[in-house]
Amino acid sequence: MATTEAPAYKKLQVKRFKPEENPDKHYLNEEKGLWAWMTTVDHKKIGLMYLASVAVFFFVGGVLALLLRTELLTPSQNFMDADVYNQVFTLHGAIMIFFFLIPSVPAALGNFILPLQLGCKDVAFPRLNLASFYIYVIGALFTLFAIFTGGVDTGWTFYTPYSASTGGNVMAMTLGVFILGFSSILTGVNFMTTIHKLRAPGMTWNKLSLNMWALYATSIIQILATPVLAITLLLLTMERALGIGIFDPALGGDPVLYQHFFWFYSHPAVYIMIVPGFGVISEVISTFSKKIIFGYWAIALSSLAIAFIGFLVWGHHMFTAGQSSLAAMVFSFLTFLVGIPTGIKIFNWVATMYKGSIDLKTPMVYAIIFLFLFMIGGFTGIMLGSLAVDIHLHDTYYVVAHFHYVMMGGMVMAFLAGLHYWWPKMFGKMYNETIAKITAGIIFVGFNMTFLPQFVMGSQGMPRRYFNYIDQFQGFHVTSTIGSYIIGLGFTIMFFYLLHSLLKGRRASSNPWGSRAMEWQVSSPPPLHNFEHTPVVINGPYDYHKPMSEFQLGIASSHNGHHTHETADVHETTGTVEKA
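RE: above sequence
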C-alpha cells in the first residue's frame, strides 16, 4: 500500500508587525470618480454605499415620524386628514423596517467589517455583493414609485383582506419589498460563504469575533426566512391582480393564513435587525472594558439559539386572531424561551464590564444606553408573551412602545455604537468626543420622553394607529411629541459633527481604541485590499489579559510558490508559527 510522506515542519519566531500609520494610499483614494464607485467590488465601498442609503431612508422615516407626532399633538385634526395619516404611518413603518433596520447593521457595517475581521481581502462573491446593493436600490425605487402614484394605507404589515381591496399602489410597494428580499438573501449567502471559506490561517471557530458569530446567525435567518416573505407578497399580488382567493374569505380564502405567512418571516426579521446589533455590542463592551469577553461560547451559541427559536414564535402576534388555546400556550412558552439566550448575552456583557477598565468613549456610552433601553424592551416583550396580558394590550400603544424600545432602543443604539466605533476605521478621521457624548445624552432623554408615556397610554387602552383620540390621552401625546423633537435635534447634531469630522477632523491612528480585534491592526482607513499579506492568527480578538507589547499575528507571504510565515500582524502573545 502506497504511503505519502508527511511534509516537514519547522518553527519560526513571530515578529510583531506594525501597520503603517495614515498611509497616503487607501481604499478611499485608490479609485476615484463616480463610475469607479458604481462599479466597485470593494466590500468597503459597497458598505459605505449601503451606509449612505440607509442614512437617507432613516432621515425620510424620521421626518415621517415627526409628522405623525405633530399631528397627534391634539385630539382633533391638525394638518393632515385620516387618509394621509394612514399613508404616512404605513410609509414610516415600511421604510424604517425594510429599508433601514434590516440592512443597516448587516449590509452597511457588516459589509465593511466582515472581511477585515476575518483577515481576508474581500467577501467570497464580490460581484454578487455589488449586485445585492443594486437590487436594494431597485426595490427602493419601486417603493418611491408607490409613494408618488397613490401611496399605501395598509400599514407596514399589508394585512389582508384590506390590502387586497384598498386603493393606492399596494402592488408597487409589495413588489419593492419583494425585490428587496433578494438583496437580503444574497448578502446572507455571501457572508456565510465568506465566514466558512475565507478565514485567515489560524482563525478557528473559537477565534472568530462575536460580531462574526452574530452575522453568521443573521445570515441563517436571512436565507431561510426571507423566501417566505417573498412568497407571501407574491400571493398577495396575485390576489389583487387575479382574484385567486387565497386570503379573501368571499372566494374561499383565509385572511388569518396571511398572518401566519407574514409573521413566520417577520418575527425572525426582528432578529435580522437585532442579532447583528448584539455582535456590535460584544465588540464595543470588550474593547472599552479592556477585558476578555465573559462567556465567549455562551454568547456565540446564544446567537444561534436565537436564530433557531426565533422561527418558532410567530404565533404570539396572533393571540387575538382566534387560534386554539393549545397553540396559544405553546407560542407563549416559546416566547418566554427565546428570552433566555438574550438574557445570557446581557448577563455576560455586564460580567465583562465588572471590574473592567471602562473607558467611557462615545461607542461605550451608546452600548450602555443599549443595555438600559433594550432590557426595558425585553421585559415588556415577556409581558406581551403572557396570554392574559396580551389580550388586554394587543394593538395598543403599549405594543408601539415595546417595539420601539427593542428596535430603536436596541438595534438603532447598537448601530450608533458601531458607527462611532468603526468611524475612524472607515474614514481615518476622529469626531469630537465631547459633542458626541452630549448628543448621546440628548437622544437618550428624547427617546424615553417619547416612548415611556406610550406604555402608560397603552395600559389605559389607547389604541395604536388611531388618527384621533379622547382628551384624557392628550398630555401623554404632547410629552411624546416633545420627546420626538428632542430625538430629531440629537440626530441633527450628530449629522453635523460627523460631517465636520470628515472635513476637519484630526487624523485617526490605526488603533485609536487600543482594540485587539483584527480590523484595528491595519491602517485607518484600510488599504485597498485590507492586508498586504495574508495574516496568520495566533490569538483571539478579546485577549486583553495579555500585554499589548506581546500582541501579535503572523503574516504569510509567498516565495517561489510556497507560503512562509515571516512577520506578525495582530494577535497577542509572542508565539511561533509552524510552516512547511
